[in-house]
Structures are given as C-alpha cells and as structure tokens.
Amino acid sequence: MAQSNIEPTNHKAESFKLLSGHTIPAVGLGTWKSGDEAFKSVFTAIVEGGYRHIDTAKQYGVQENIGLGLKEAMQTGIQRKDLFVTSKLWCADLSPDRVRSALNNTLQELQLDYLDLYLIHWPFRLKEGASRPPKDGEVLEFDMEGVWREMEKLVKDGLVRDIGVCNFTLKKLNKLLNFAKTQPSVCQMEMHPGWRNDKILEACKKNGIHVTAYSPLGSQGAGRDLIHDPTVERIAKKLNKSPGQILLKWGIQRGTSVIPKSTHPDRIKENIKAFGWEIPEQDFQTLCSMTDQKRLLHGEILFVNSSAGPFRCVADLWDHED
After folding, report:
1. Contact at 8 Å (CB) between 7 and 77?
2. pLDDT score of 37
C-alpha cells in the first residue's frame, strides 16, 4: 500500500483553534465499528482523501489496525506533526492509578510517541469486564478530579498535547471546570440536525471549549438515518451536494469539527469535500429547526441497571438535562 501513486484530493482542510493554541482539523475520520476495515480506511483517508484527523478509542478494538494504517500513510511522506490523532480513556481505566498505563497501551497499539488529544470516553467508571447491561456492583465510583489530575500530568510530560471529555452533561462539565488546572480543550458529543444538543454547545462556546460532533450523519442503527431525510435530501439537491456533505457542513458552520465514520473509499473522499462553499442561511436555519429532537446514542446498555442502579434509567445518565 505504501507504493500508492494516487494524489491526495487538492483542497484546503479547514481547522479550528483550541484553547492550547493547537489546531484540530474540521473533518476527521471516525473509526467506531470499522473493524477489519480500519487499516484500509485510515490509509485511504490520509493518502487519498487528504484527511489529517483520525478519531479512535481503546474500546473500539481497532487501534492496532489504525496504527498500521498510520504507519503506512507516514511511509508515503506524510509527517506525524501534520496528523491529529485522538483516542479515549475507557471506563474500566477511570481510576487515577490506571490512566498512564492505559495511555501507554494506546500509544503502543497506535505505534505513536504521543497523542494530539486524549478524551475521557464516558464519565462513568466500570468494573473490568462489566456485563452489558451492568450487574449490581459493576458501576463503580468515579474519582473525576483524581483522573483529571493524571491526565494533566500526561500533557505536562509531553505524552498528550490536549485533553478533553466525551458525553458530559452541563452538571459534570461545570464540576470539572471548578477544579481543572488544565482546561478541557475539546468536548466530543453526539450532534446532528436530529439532536442539536444546543445546551452543551453553548456552554462549551462560553468556556472556549471546542466541540467535536460524533455521529454527524445520524445513526441508521439507532433509527435516525439523516442521509435519507427528505429535508436534507432537498437541500443537497438544491446545492448539488451529497446529503452527507450537507450534514457535515452544517456541523462545521455551527463551529464544530465532525468525525463521520465510513469504510467506503468513495464516501471517505466525498465526506471531506466540505470546504469552499456554504449552506445558505435560510437552508441552514431549516436544518437547525428539525423536529423530533432525540439523543440516539444514550449509553443505556453500557451503564443502566434499572433495579440495582446507581443509574436506573437513561435520564439518570444525562442528569435529567435532556
């Protein structure tokens, strides 16, 4: 693969500036559920698509494949300093004594010396090997401050350039901001026209925290496939763009980076063509006004135990803020 002569797509990959002064590319490749295709997808995205932002996580089970893809891509002449690689600290490692070893394991799998961004994947600590849904006693107490202090040390030691969070509520974000010495640079949340998540977006903007939107195309598996939404399709046809490009551009125009997941080479290359054009204001507001706002990826199977708790329903996970 390293011998590929295909030229990268020639376009300006826009980016956003983080609190730290570093920049995060506006479009990244999501790798959840990419399985055995992860290696090929990462190589295609970087070398043929011009991506410079790759998002992954220990829990996805694909980091070794992604590491191989990154290595192959860099052997074509792309430099590490020009890539932005994100990974996430899993719930079983959410204790101060496990943070550094979890990161070291991730770096080893990815074959990297440092991460650009390390995120708390979910703000809930699980016992190693917890069932789905969790049994009584498998959801443990989460020492948020202790874990954050260890993540701050990773930045100080040059192993991670920026740190942040995923799937936080306003309540949890405010708690973190009250004791953080190094502010979270990024908050990664589910966001798309079917779940705008306006409250957390506004809170992050107010605090200078960049937001990355995951599942920016909705989720077919969770019952909201926005690619085939009539409103999205109508605007796409009007602007001579694909529905995916419209959904991603909507996220970028809101000021968020977006990490669409795909293992299809043509779709990967199509998704990053979100620059050099804009969604007109009226169409943008139409997308901002879609009804039936609903979170699709709510974490119920991972964390809710309706009889034993401590989280007995989805609303408990999200601090009854939805």
Report:
1. no
2. 80
For the stretch 134-161, pLDDT in tens is 999 999 999 999 999 999 999 999 999 9
144, containing H or E segment: helix 144-156
Residues marked active site are found at 60
Beta strands 15-17 and 23-25: pairing type?
antiparallel
Query: Residue ranges of the chain with pLDDT lower than 50?
Result: 1-13
- Among 118, 156, 161, 119, which residue's Cα sits nearest to residue 19? 161
| C-beta separation of 258 from 249 below 8 A | no
pLDDT for the residue 8: 35
Tell me the backbone φ, ψ of residue 18, rounded to 5 degrees: -95, 165
CA angle 27, 31, 113 (to 5 degrees): 85
Q: Evaluate if pTM is beyond 0.85.
A: yes
Please state at what angle helix 99-110 crosses helix 63-74, rounded to 10 degrees: 50
Q: What letter would DSSP give residue 192?
A: B
Those residues whose C-beta lies under 8 Å from the C-beta of residue 39, and which sit 6 or more positions away, are 65, 66, 68, 69, 72
Those residues whose C-beta lies under 8 Å from the C-beta of residue 237, and which sit 6 or more positions away, are none
What per-residue confidence (pLDDT) applies to 262?
A: 85
Would you state the pLDDT for residue 53?
A: 97
C-alpha span between 174 and 168 (Å, rounded): 10
CB under 8 Å to 232, separation ≥6 — which residues? 193, 226, 243, 246, 247, 287
| The pLDDT of residue 219 | 84
254: how many CB neighbours lie within 10 A of its CB?
19
Cβ neighbours, 10 Å, residue 292? 7
Please tell me the predicted confidence (pLDDT) of residue 9.
35
Phi-psi region of 242 (alpha: psi -120 to 50; beta: other; left: phi over 0): beta
